[in-house]
Amino acid sequence: MVDWSEDRIAALSNQDLKNLLVNAERKAAAEIIARCNAEMEKRDAAKPRKASKPRTEVKEFEHAMSEQLAEIGKAMAAKFDLSEETAKAKSVGIKGFKAHKLLDSKGFAKLGGMQRDGSVAVDRYISYRRGTDIVSLSVFLLKDAPVETHEFHVIAPLALLDGGKPIEEVRPTATAEQKQTADSGLTFTDLPAAAAAFEATLAKITV
After folding, report:
1. Range 146-152 contact pairs with CB under 8 angstroms and sequence separation of 24 or more
2. What is the tens place of the pLDDT at every residue in 149-205?
């Protein structure tokens, strides 16, 4: 009978080590099984790990903006009742009503449809719905465009949005299939101004 010492096992090729483990398991040889597993763990630990790819400039920007939009969303939730329960209670009778979650499951801004289908580089947003009205604040960057050309969009029904422009002007690249959530919007180059417009619109929809 072969004495399967740690040194003898360590000298085996990967395939021979696997074969030995299979045989040991078949014979219920607990000591050999333990030594084989220990050697496998040692070899796995010694394998070079693939370095994670660094984020691109656009991805870094998207991540940072998703965090900032989320912080604005949390601040708005502290000022207004944006709970799903209240949205549902105030939307009774609206066929197919579905309350909007303010943020995504990880606590960041949600992924917009135009980024999801690959037609733009960045489309991240926070939103609230009550009845048939939807109000959203988003960061928007066209595909292959420099990061510094990004825009912030507040999209809401024209009746709620002071100075709102037709949605076709705000998002001229959107196709008919890329349905927008309201008929009007405003474009901003700085986030604080966009957040202020978003807050003013939320104040109206939550009355």
Report:
1. 147/57, 147/58, 147/61, 150/61, 150/65, 150/122, 151/187, 151/188, 151/189, 152/187, 152/188, 152/189, 152/190, 152/191, 152/193, 152/194
2. 999 999 999 999 999 999 999 999 999 889 899 999 999 999 999 999 999 999 999
Cα four-point dihedral sign 15, 16, 20, 23: positive
pTM attached to this predicted model: 0.73
For 79-96, how does the pLDDT look when each residue is reduced to its tens digit (9 = 90+)?
999 999 999 999 999 998
Q: Say if CB 93 and CB 99 are below 8 A apart.
A: no
131: tokens are 């009845």
